[in-house]
Amino acid sequence: MSKVVMYSTQVCPYCQMAERLLKSRGVEHIEKVLIDRDPARREEMMTRTGRRTVPQVFIGETHVGGYDDLSALDRAGGLMPLLEVA
Fold first, then answer.
1. Rounded to an integer, what distance in angstroms lies between the CA atom of residue 65 and that of residue 83?
2. What distance lies between CA 39 and its chain's CA centroid?
3. Structural domain count of the chain
4. Is the CB of residue 22 less than 8 Å from the CB of residue 36?
5. Which of 3, 6, 52, 84 has its CA at 20 to 30 Å from residue 25's CA atom?
6. What is the DSSP code string of 16-83?
7. pLDDT one-digit tens code per residue, 8-37
8. pLDDT digits over 49-79, tens only?
9. Between vectors from CA 5 to CA 7 and to CA 55, what angle results, nearest 5°?
10. CATH number of the domain to which 27 belongs
């Protein structure tokens, strides 16, 4: 299964929904980067994604986006193939 990294904050409901969706698709480990604890990581997230909001989800090297993007990808059938990359 592909590595999943999620930029998040400690109290973000959309981050929690993204985590639930990923776990329901078989993801056992999500590397969470808590940008409210480390401001330098917020800058890193904004540089990598061009976005300021959380969550920002990466599957492997692919930037999926936020929760809305993640759920739309899942509905379109694109999430599982991305997760299952060997």
1. 14
2. 18
3. 1
4. no
5. 52
6. HHHHHHHHHTT---EEEEETTT-HHHHHHHHHHHS--SS-EEEETTEEEESHHHHHHHHHTT-HHHHH
7. 999 999 999 999 999 999 999 999 999 999
8. 999 999 999 999 999 999 999 999 999 999 9
9. 30
10. 3.40.30.10
In whole angstroms, how far apart are CA 2 and each of 9, 27, 36, 37, 49?
Answer: 22, 9, 25, 26, 19
Task: With residue 14 as reference, give the H or E element that holds it.
Answer: helix 13-24
Expressed as residue numbers, the domain containing 77 is 4-83
Beta bridge partners of 6: 32, 57
Classify burial at 40, counting beta carbons within 10 Å of its beta carbon; exposed 0-12, middle 13-18, buried 19 or more.
exposed
Q: Which two tokens stand for residue 15?
A: 């981050």
